[in-house]
Amino acid sequence: FVPSALGTREHWDAAYERELQTFQDIGDAGEIWFGEESMMRIIRWLEKHQVPLDSSVLDIGTGNGVLLVELAKSGYVNLTGIDYSPSAIQLSEKVREKEGMSDIKFKVEDFLAPSAELSGFDVCIDKGTFDAVSLSPDDAAGKRQQYVRSLGRVLKPEGFFLITSCNWTKEELLNEFREGFEILEELPTPKFCFGGRIGNSVTALVFQRK
């Protein structure tokens, strides 16, 4: 990948400072990464596989926290969102308050250097955070490897990892997460047709930690 501002903390701090101001001005929580369908796809999978409502769920790079709000509305009660941008966490806390979902926990955490208390999760979810890590102008390959190590630390053995990506194909993600994880399922995502070839603009996979 070509390094991008999307891979820098400065970019996300500035973006979420703008979204925080917008929320305070007009109550708009901002962009939902990959759209609402991506959230419903995750919730449907959890419900289909009867993942217990008290399972501990970690949203990696929670942004505005809207995914966790939707999970709470679906009955999930043990929800944590982390983001390395303090402005994102401020925004997610305000969205949580507006929605009346006081039980959702939000923390400023860098997933590449997680605190010791960030461990033992049954489910980890990533919508675009691994993509952003992959665009870092500073040792993106090393950061991807650190991401996989961090995931192995915070997710319980046999825990589920649901990742949604617009930068990586299924085969590439299988390679990235080959150490310590196995593929369970590829989730259906919208398809597009270009030049007579059909492909997916988004990849959504479910892994299980070995």
UniProtKB/TrEMBL annotation:
Q: Example GO molecular function term?
A: protein-lysine N-methyltransferase activity
Any one Gene Ontology biological process term?
Answer: methylation
- What keywords are assigned to this protein? Cytoplasm, Methyltransferase, Nucleus, S-adenosyl-L-methionine, Transferase
Catalysed reactions listed for this entry: L-lysyl-[protein] + 3 S-adenosyl-L-methionine = N(6),N(6),N(6)-trimethyl-L-lysyl-[protein] + 3 S-adenosyl-L-homocysteine + 3 H(+)
Q: Does Cytoplasm count among this protein's keywords?
A: yes
Annotated CDD domains:
AdoMet_MTases
InterPro entries, per the entry: Efm4/METTL10 (IPR026635), Methyltranfer_dom (IPR025714), SAM-dependent_MTases_sf (IPR029063)
Query: Pfam family of this protein, just one?
Result: Methyltransf_31
GO cellular component labels = cytoplasm
Q: Report the residue ranges that make up the Methyltransferase domain in this protein.
A: 56-185
Gene3D superfamilies the record matches: Vaccinia Virus protein VP39
Stored PANTHER family: EEF1A LYSINE METHYLTRANSFERASE 2 (PTHR12843:SF5), PROTEIN-LYSINE N-METHYLTRANSFERASE METTL10 (PTHR12843)
The protein, known as = EFMT2 methyltransferase
Which organism is this entry from? Pitta sordida
